[in-house]
Amino acid sequence: MEIDFHDNTETVPEEHFGLIKGLLELTAQKEKVKESAEVSVTFVTNEEIQQINRDYRHLDKPTDVISFALEETVEGEVTIIGQEIPVALGDIIISVEKAKEQAEEYNHSFERELGFLAVHGFLHLLGYDHMTEEDEKIMFTKQEEILGEFKLGR
Description:
Elements: E1 2-7, H1 14-30, E2 38-44, H2 46-57, E3 65-69, E4 88-95, H3 96-105, H4 110-125, H5 133-149
Parallel strand pairs: 1-2, 2-4
Antiparallel strand pairs: 3-4
Helix pairs in contact: 1-4, 3-4, 4-5
């Protein structure tokens, strides 16, 4: 899987890119995502994610992670048939400041929080959600299993 990283904050250590790459590849393997899939991960400030949250979700406050899925089909869309083309899953946007705040609040490492947010955002790109209690249980169980397998459990 191709993962494109962007650190708009210029504060995320290089080894954290490897951590997230490993987590997303493990998640992709478990979820049977095509090896040709592509995803981007962007690290931003609270100010930047608040602007995105306001513009796209009409919530004028910072949040921890936002995902934009590119593989969602809309009514009337034509399916492309033919050659194998990379699957562009979408974008995961993570607030580094929010991740640090939440790591402290939940009393675990920044790495664990960053990993959680990356997996959470990736699962959203794959169609998982937590709008109902049942869906939340499914999604959060998957997250905890993946993080645990990667030695980032609680």
